[in-house]
Structure formats: C-alpha cells, structure tokens
Amino acid sequence: xxxxxxxxxxxxxxxxxxxxxxxxxxxxxxxxxxxxxxxxxxxxxxxxxxxxxxxxxxxxxxxxxxxxxxxxxxxxxxxxxxxxxxxxxxxxxxxxxxxxxxxxxxxxxxxxxxxxxxxxxxxxxxxxxxxxxxxxxxxxxxxxxxxxxxxxxxxxxxxxxxxxxxxxxxxxxxxxxxxxxxxxxxxxxxxxxxxxxxxxxxxxxxxxxxxxxxxxxxxxxxxxxxxxxxxxxxxxxxxxxxxxxxxxxxxxxxxxxxxxxxxxxxxxxxxxxxxxxxxxxxxxxxxxxxxxxxxxxxxxxxxxxxxxxxxxxxxxxxxxxxxxxxxxxxxxxxxxxxxxxxxxxxxxxxxxxxxxxxxxxxxxxxxxxxxxxxxxxxxxxxxxxxxxxxxxxxxxxxxxxxxxxxxxxxxxxxxxxxxxxxxxxxxxxxxxxxxxxxxxxxxxxxxxxxxxxxxxxxxxxxxxxxxxxxxxxxxxxxxxxxxxxxxxxxxxxxxxxxxxxxxxxxxxxxxxxxxxxxxxxxxxxxxxxxxxxxxxxxxxxxxxxxxxxxxxxxxxxxxxxxxxxxxxxxxxxxxxxxxxxxxxxxxxxxxxxxxxxxxxxxxxxxxxxxxxxxxxxxxxxxxxxxxxxxxxxxxxxxxxxxxxxxxxxxxxxxxxxxxxxxxxxxxxxx
Length: 670
Ligand code: GLY
Fold this sequence. Notes:
Elements: E1 2-5, E2 8-18, H1 22-33, E3 38-42, H2 49-52, E4 56-57, H3 68-91, E5 102-106, E6 120-122, H4 124-127, E7 140-144, E8 148-149, H5 152-166, E9 169-172, E10 176-184, E11 187-195, E12 198-207, E13 222-232, E14 246-248, E15 253-256, E16 261-265, H6 279-292, E17 301-311, E18 318-321, E19 327-331, H7 337-352, H8 387-396, E20 410-412, E21 415-417, E22 421-424, H9 431-441, E23 445-449, H10 450-454, H11 463-466, E24 473-477, H12 484-500, E25 508-511, H13 524-536, E26 540-545, H14 549-557, E27 564-565, H15 579-588, E28 594-596, H16 602-610, E29 615-618, H17 620-623, H18 628-648
Parallel strand pairs: 2-3, 2-12, 3-9, 5-14, 12-19, 22-23, 22-29, 23-24, 25-26, 26-27, 28-29
Antiparallel strand pairs: 1-2, 4-8, 5-7, 6-7, 10-11, 11-12, 13-16, 13-17, 14-15, 15-16, 18-19, 20-21
Helix pairs in contact: 1-5, 1-7, 3-5, 3-7, 9-18, 12-13, 14-15, 16-18
The protein binds glycine (GLY).
Glycine binds next to loops.
C-alpha cells in the first residue's frame, strides 16, 4: 500500500525487510507465502554479497565444527534440494543446484582426523576417479560427498522473480537512513523507517542488510572483502566443462558451472568497504588456481569482481528477535549466506510469526552484549555497567525499589544506558583525578575530543588510553572543528579511534561545528549539513546546538540520534539560561534531548532533569571543581534525583498558601 502524505511517499506493510540480497528476498518470499504483506527495501540488489559469492554449499569443506552453527548449516544443506526444486518450479528458472560433492585437495599428506564425520580421505591414486587433471604434487584430498554448489546469481534472480510474482513489493534504490524507535509500555518499538524515498512503516521489521547492518544498528558486523574472478572453458575444448566437482584447495576454491564458467575465489581482507580488484588479490587467485588445476591457466578470463562478506566476531550469523519488540535480525552470514538461505528464510519467517525455533537462541544478538538486559530493559547493546554506579544505587536505595518509579533506560541509537549523565574528559588536572571523578559520577558515556587526542594537544597526550573502554562508552566529539567538512572528517577519525580502542560497533559522534571562539556557539547551518552527511554514513549523530526548537526538529528529521541543546556557553557555569526554549525542544522531540554545556552546579543539573531532559552532559563543572571526585558524585546524584522528580511529577505552583492539613473532616468544637 502507498499513501501520499504531505508530499512524502509513505509505504506500509505487515513486514518491512531491509536488504534485498538472497537472505532478505527468501525471507520475503516465505512470509508472503504465509500470507503477510511484505515490502523489501534495497539500495542496490547487485551490491549484495549473494550476487558476488561463488555459491558453494560447503559446511564440511569450510571446516565448521560440530555445534549449533554446524547444525544450522547441515539443516540448510539437507533442505537445499527440495527448496531449489520448488524455486525452479515456481519461476521456471534454473538455479544451477548441483550436489556435485566437494573435493578438498591437500599438498601435504593430511593424516589429521576428518574435518567432518562424513568426509573421506583419498590417497593420490584415488583422486582421478573423482576429478582428473589436478596438480601432480597433490598429496591427497578430503572428499565431501554431500556438499556442492548452486549458481548464486541465478538463485538470487529467481528469488526476486518469485517474490515479485508472489506480490512482494520490491523497492530498489532506497537507502534506509534510520530506524525511528519509541518506547511503548516499557518496550521499545520501531515506529517507522526514514529513507531516501520518504518514510516507511510496518508492523514488523527485518534487518537483512548483510555487511552494512552496522550502518543502522550497533551490531558487530564488519565487511570482509573477497576478490573473485571467473574463467571460461574455451570453445572447442574436449569437454564443455572438464571439472565435475567443486575444488576446495588451500586458500583457493574453484567452482565449475555447467555452462563452462569456472569461478575462482576468494581473498579475505578486513579492509572495510574499500572497493576494487587489486593486482595482489588477482595474482593470488590466478596463481593458486593454476597450480591446483593447471589446465585453467590458458582459459580466457571472463570477469573479475569483489564483494563484502558480513563478518561477525564469532563468524556465526545474527538471527532472531532483535532489540526492539517488532524487529527481527537476519545478518552476519559471513562465508555461508548462500548455504544458509533456505534455513534462514524458514526460521526467520517462524520468528516473525511469533514462533521462534529454539535453535535461534545460539544466534541471538545478545551474545555480543557485555551485560544482558532484563525483560524490563528491552533495548539494545547496553553499555558496560559501571560497578560504582550499581554500588551507589544499592547504598542510596536500600529498600529495593521503594520510591523508584519504573523508568526505561536512556536509549540512544538503539543502545541503552542506565546512567543519564554523560561526562567529558577535558580540563582535569591529571588522569587519576579524571578516572576517579568519572567513576564517582556513575556515568556510562564519556566524550573525547578526537582532534585534540589525535594532535596530542596539552592534557590530551595518552588520554584515550587512560580510560577503561570496557566500562564506559566512548562519545567521540568534533571539538575544534569550524566547518561541516572538518567535522565530517574528524567524525570519521573518531569512529576509527573508537574501533582501535576496542569499541568495534561504536558509531556515535557528538557533532560540534563551532566557528566562534569567544562564545563557542555552534553554527546551525554547518551542523545541519554535517549531520545529514554523517547520518548517511551510518553515524549515530548527537549534535550540539543552540537551544533552537526548529533546528532541533530539523536535526531529528534528518535522522540524528539525539539533540544536545546548550544550557549556556560551554564552560561558563551560568546554568540553564534558556529554559523556555529547552522546554519546547523537550516537548516536541521524539529523540532524547541531552542538555549540554553551561551547567555549573548539581542544583542546575537536577533542574534540567526535572524539566524532562533525557540526559545531561557535564564536563567543566566536574573537572574544574575544587574536588572533582566529590563533584562527580554530586552531579551523578543530582541527575538521578532530577529524573526521579520528573517521573514523580511535581506539584503545580500556586499563587497563595495552601494549608498542609485539610480543612474538611477535622474534629471541631461544637
Ligand atoms: N563461501 C566462501 C567465501 O566466502 O569466500
């Protein structure tokens, strides 16, 4: 269904799938076949890893050890024949499913135990019966009789056709910019997607964006580049296709198609999204392939290409219920997306329909969390908890939850935080005091000036290493940037810095574009420009702004994760000088409003929280206090007290006194 609303094209569906690779399309088809209205949003179908893969179905040859992951792969392999058959019948298109068996030749005798129970070791003399023409120095081979291949491009194309014919709406050329979330009855839900083609809404959302998943959610999925090539058996050759098996060699695989094409793969390079084939990559492929199967060195090269596998830290996919109640994840398939397509489609469709298979538990996003959320803290990738903060809570609140209204955690770009105080790392007399003050404040987010750290500005030498990033979440900031361009560049450096310090999935940036050095007031136009670009690049943008409600709204509309209006100029300690405007921003925002700059005393921190600010950022008032550690603690307590007061609801202000005891119902003289 499509509606025109105030000039914005809005799409609605039961299920919205972000990602048009084999995984997204197969899930879409399965859900559609089960009766759902489904839309698939894809930036570029040809960009998906499924398009650039070789199509091996190779759990044993890939050396996947026994366990839930191997079970998942084996279930998918066992289902492949039927699944492929159905897809071909549905579309009338061949997808090249070929259970040819995989031969894994070795150049040194491999007496080690079988890589998989069903694999069989072949001595050199036995190999020719399976495949003739291998290198003379092959010392034996593992034979995986149950494995094989599918023509991944033909399969992905057939999935598109089948999905379209079944009534799935496919939207190509649409980039999703952000998921917009809202808390409802203590659960976070996705409200809509902001895209380059307007807003899209659905009852349920599936994230299937492969290597790009981290652009939208802080999941630890990173691109692992693979370079590939194909040669073609020349016309007039004695056999149209002399290879009868997939060859899985040492750092090379050779995948023959019945058409005479032979696919060679693949490098494995952690180089981010660096595009292009390189001489080194192609030399590797051609040398290794020519050694293993010498005949192909004279076959004409047909194509060279590259793609990005969605890698995860444990090389297993991320599947199943996501961090929001109406979000399911299907990403991170790394080297096995084509193999896992049938099982992923079936299990994800079950999960979306509310019947998650127990096997999914092993693939939950929660395995990457440092601390698991409870059911009342539904959101995502909670930051490492500060033990200091937990301790404070126990001491100051001995009677459990008495007087503690239920509160959702602070959620920014899908990540949750218990503390609503953010602090800075500048202006401390030394790192020890900084560490203690930060710990005493209980804060879980610390902002770091990327530029000052990178240039070793005074007081910043070694600063980034001085904090324990296992405990606090880094908020790189673009302090010192006068223009949008500078801020964008520094934000990118900040992301690299966070990665280097172990926060692989940190895409946060506190955006500061400040041309004026006297009052340090931010440039609204430059900030908006930089925010738009950084959101497109997948950053969770936290812009520092003057307290301008219209600008705040515009920034929210372009996909910023928060807005951070200033209370008064940075470091001035003047408190909240623009409460009325901040109040308007708070009333209108659907993203967290973080009051930043100017707070000088805990009473002002509490006042900002009482107004309904979602969080505060305080640096100078702590770092420059006579006793920064005590002030850190005071600010932490004030933030908490202010929040509690906001939730408790203050009494209205009256123009006259009202007696504390009621005048009615009293015992009176008669
Ligand atoms: N599945 C083989 C690869 O990712 O290179």
